[in-house]
Amino acid sequence: MSIQMQLSWQHEFHGPNPFTTEPVVVAVLDLESARTPLTWAAAAEFTRRFTAWVDGTTSESNGQADACDSVAILQAVIQWSLGVLNEVRGDLQAGGVRRDLSGRLCCWLGFHEPQLSRAVFERGLRTLTAVQNGSLDMQALNARLADIEQACRRHHPDYQARILRVAARAQNSPVLPFVPGSRFWQFGWGVHSRVFFESFSNDDAALGSRWQSDKPLSKQIFQSLGLPTPRFERVNDTAQLHVAAQRIGYPCVVKPVSCGGGKGVTAAITDQAGLEAAYSHARRLAPTGPLMIESHQPGDDCRLVLVSGQLVAAIRRRPACVTGDGHSTVTELVDELNRTRSANLVKSRYLRPIMKDHYLVAHLAAQGMTLDTCLPAGQRLSLRSNANLSTGGSCDDYTDQVHPQLKAMAEQVAQTFGIATAGLDYITTDISAPPAMGVGAFIEINTTPGLDACVAAGWSESRIGHMVLGDIPQRIPVTLHVVMEDRREAALEQQKHTPLPAGQAMACGEQLRVGEALFTCEPAEPWPAVRAALRNKSVTSLLVICSEQEITRQGLPVDKVDKVEYLGCTLAPEWMQVLSAVSTSA
Q1: Is the pLDDT of residue 2 over 60?
Q2: For residue 499, what are the CA distances in angstroms to 4, 201, 350, 560?
């Protein structure tokens, strides 16, 4: 028999609220009126079948769960929903179920994009009822989950932003989108804020960013500073390619000028056929403009991570490879390695699955191998010519082995480029020896060095994230004036005529004043004037004038308040508790 239930979405809170301090969507659910109620047995089966997303915290090991325990049953759906949302780039923790004073079941779920979280929770409910009805269609569910995965890629923070968000949470720093719907994230408020795109921030020099985006130009700067770097030439067509190869010699490397992440790169090219194949590979990624041919530098590929001009990590990147067992084919060995790697890079510690694509097939062919080759026991086989994580590489921490001269050299380069968080690619046969001995060379510099490489090498997300964030991201003082809805405009007019020193801000609805400057903010997001003030780098303190209706409709405008004043109004007890929890004076 089909299970019917009444679901009503009640709230979309973008700040602290009676359920949690995080943004959540809130639904009221009526299970008791269903003619065929959901059962604990169905929830337990649901949890068992979807252990990849449900962490098992709702399971009753002693088997004593009440068959009509609706809260526990819905908690399984909440856990499933969080697992699905966090599978791809999600960084959500808030979610739960409880009964309100009238006995209704209230469910709340965190969001990066509210409609996506609603859709996932509703999908979880339908999946749970299908499990109980015996009508679960896994093919249809997997198709829907694939759609959800693509939506998560569009709306959730990228992995570099996630690492910084984890660190910000650990150090109690506020986070907000700098441009809603974009990949720009702000950490801290006002004068104490920094804005990041991945690990590239508004503290980075624009000129240095321009230099690093052009690989040949950055190598010319290396040369002008006296750093060792492989010989190179720009090429625009195959005729120039062959001439350049004759001058540079084999082995050599072909790469696009501006692509990152090892895209289009072929290393250790030893002959003309390999050179032409590498050129075609690079052209797929960079159809127009010049490519670069470079002398091949032997040794390990090391990423030197520098923060504020100081070397903080040296990560050796190893190309994807497999080791033979005497009976498995290359395909089987790759599949076995990929079992520990998934689309959820957090679970796999940022190790990517190895793709069995035509690049892999070509690389195997150059070694006289195919995917069907059976490798002898103990034989290691390289699967890529480059060592990037994005193509299935792995990482080791070599920070303690860096020679002092190399450390000093790397720090001077980062300081000269003016890049706050830099990644220097250095290839060497011995990272513990000075570069002057001819053991290594600098390849390129990046403004987004890939914090995931440190995590893949064993670091915690909070450790590297805190280094990059630094101590700047902090809160500014915020005062909250809560007024009756019909008195809000009068309070705003009064404040408009009150002198404000430079740096002090006042926000009310869509109206913002910073010192003597007046702004009208587009209502494209909740609390538009408050968000605009927090994004303004000149703001040192903020007064928010808001009505009790705004608070109960949207949640609090910020997660910490220094002072609250109630001007002719009182809030419901549950909201008074919320304000008391987030303020130092309520």
Answers
A1: no
A2: 59, 34, 52, 25
